[in-house]
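During the no-cost extension, the postdoctoral fellow (Dr. R.K.) reprocessed legacy sequence entries with the updated structure-token encoder. One reprocessed record is reproduced below for audit purposes.
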Amino acid sequence: MSVPTTNEKPSPIDPPPEQSSLSEQIEASYSKIGLTTAHFGIVAMVLFGVFFDAVEQNAVGITGPLLRESWGLGGTEIGLLNTATFTAVALGRILAGAVMDRFGRRTLLGANLLVFAFGSLLCAFAPNYEVLVGARFLVGLGLGGEIAVAVIMLSEFFSAKHRGTAVGMINVAAAGLGNMLAPLFGVIVFAIFTGDDRWRWLFGLLVLPALAVVFYRRSLPETPRFLAATGRVAEANTVINRLAQGKLRGTLDSELQYLNIDTSVDDHAAPRARWTEMFGRRYRRSTLALGIAVCMSYAAQISMLTLIPVILTERGMSISSALWYTLVMQSGSLIGALTAALIARKLPRKVTLTGGAVLGIVAGLGFGFFATSIGLVLFFGALFNFSVIILNTTIWLFAPEQYPTRIRGLATSVILALGSLSGGLFPLIAGAVLDSSGVGAMFGMLAGLFIVCAIAVQFPKETFGQPMPEDG
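Re-encoded structure tokens follow.
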């Protein structure tokens, strides 16, 4: 696929037909433009942030054995740290969804990372467990908004042909590279710093890349779909020209008319998102089904991330060995994210989700009852992560495709927030089952979550290969 350079002048285009909606005009413009260097710049700016978010999401699991040793925490108390984090992630996503549909997608990205950075710094200096729980809640507020906005922004910058791969790349950076390299980050930090409090350095060092990303994103534009939906059609046309010419900054060579500026005001009235609409007759089925599916998927994923280092250290491994083995298992996340991004161009969403859930059932039962050697532990652990990231990545893509622009941010954020809330609460249950009944019972329970997920994903409407929906 060819990629225009930033010096290539746009070719003349036919004027947009007056009878077509702005959504149709944007989709036609995206299809005509294809992919340019501006698209890759936007993806890079989004992915750098979600990568460090993923590292932060693994921080409790990485530091858990040290916190258990120095503060005497049990599995339930370590689970509570993630409960605080992901409960706040859920709240952050809901707030972000409401704000981004009213004030824009771009505005929230910098604010989210600043909140996250402050929370990480507070974690580093927490004097006791109670303060650490509160700091993790603050971190979660920033994390929740970041992923929600990233999913919406990338879904709105690309045509139907490329949207699946673009959104899938979020999890390549987050659940793939982020989850896989997070244990390596822990190994490096714990090798450089010694003492019972070396976990503090891990939290503190995450502040620096977050601040760097805020600066790097200063040239990120607002999405044309949001600008058009709020009546700023001329601005949307300018952004499309920047995409076409590969120029996110600087003066454009010329500006062509991709959008009909005189389109009826009703076509781009300011959005008025209502909480009840996503549960109304038109969208209820998709909202409930995807909400259930993401709850099951996140509950399985976060339980695994939180407790696997504890499980490995309880089997006699050192913390460094446990983190290295966790890294190997997290390679499944990277492969899963890449696979989901690639097959999004080829397979219907429901087929991908059903296949991921079936693999999750196999992985959960295999880890819980057949992983009697380190080789099988690594294999089933990697397969578990592979399947759960297939699910998460595809749900992130599937959810925005169900709703029009005016409620897309809010509805998608609510669905993702339900997943985060489930991911925050379920490690408490998983930790308690681990403490009382062992690894087999815990992973048997996680396999049951994938069964429910496989059923739920059959109910939303299929959106593969279709343009983003709008009212009318």
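The chain has a mean pLDDT of 86. The chain has 17 helices and no strands. The remaining legacy entries will be reprocessed before the final report is submitted.
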